[in-house]
Design brief:
Distance between the termini: 51 Å
Number of domains: 1
Helix content: over 70%
Structural class: mainly alpha
Shape: globular
Largest sheet: none
Number of strands: 0
């Protein structure tokens, strides 16, 4: 019982975090130079669908469409997929903030190119490796 509660609680937390990140992403998308002053609701939907296609398998998306179920409310929306969504949204936000992504076309390209590369090895793996590497350098400097 406790384990099930913990898992459900973690999924709910991840869903909330992903929703918050998507709102923040929409804010940044709204402020892209080529999208300012426009109705961007359609773009938000297209970005969400593009992200969804990078997170879920095509057959999972089709099954949920056939069952008329939002995939984010399905059994496929687990901690792993919700974590991926959060990771991808945060990455896009960071790319926009750093001016690597400056237009809607750039957003689409970033999702297609970067996320394809991230799917092979998780971005968090790189972050952990980099942090470990910095830690080793710090140890070498301190004890040298």
């Amino acid at each position: 019982m406790y384990r099930w509660y913990f898992i459900n609680e973690k999924i709910l937390t991840k869903r909330d975090d992903g929703g918050d990140d998507f709102k923040e992403l929409n804010f940044h998308l709204d402020n892209l130079p080529d999208r300012q002053g426009k109705n961007n609701k359609g773009m938000f939907i297209q970005v969400a669908m593009r992200l969804r296609s990078k997170i879920f398998k095509p057959e999972q998306i089709k099954e949920c469409k056939d069952r008329n179920i939002n995939i984010w409310n399905s059994e496929y929306a687990n901690v792993v997929t919700l974590s991926k969504r959060e990771e991808y949204e945060k990455l896009l936000i960071k790319l926009i903030e750093m001016n690597f992504v400056n237009s809607y076309e750039d957003v689409k390209s970033a999702i297609d190119k970067l996320i394809n590369n991230l799917n092979t090895v998780s971005w968090s793996y790189y972050t952990k490796f980099f942090n470990f590497f910095l830690f080793l350098i710090l140890l070498i400097i301190l004890f040298h």
